[in-house]
Amino acid sequence: MSRIDEVVSDALEAIHRVLEQHQVTEREWHAALAFLTDVGRADEFILLSDVTRTSVLIDAMSHGDEEGATASDVEGPLYVDDPPWRKKPVRVYEDYEGMGDAEVLFVRGSVTSTDGSPLPDAVIDIWQTGPSGGYDIWDDRQPEFNFRGRWKVEDDAGAYEFQTMLPKPYTVPTEGPVGRYLEAVGQHPWRPAHIHFKVDAPGHQPLVTQVFFPDDPYLENDTIGAVKEALVRPVEPENGHLVCPFDIVMRPAA
Ligand code: BEZ
Ligand code: FE
Question: How many CA atoms lie within 13 A of 97 on its CB side?
Answer without folding.
Answer: 2
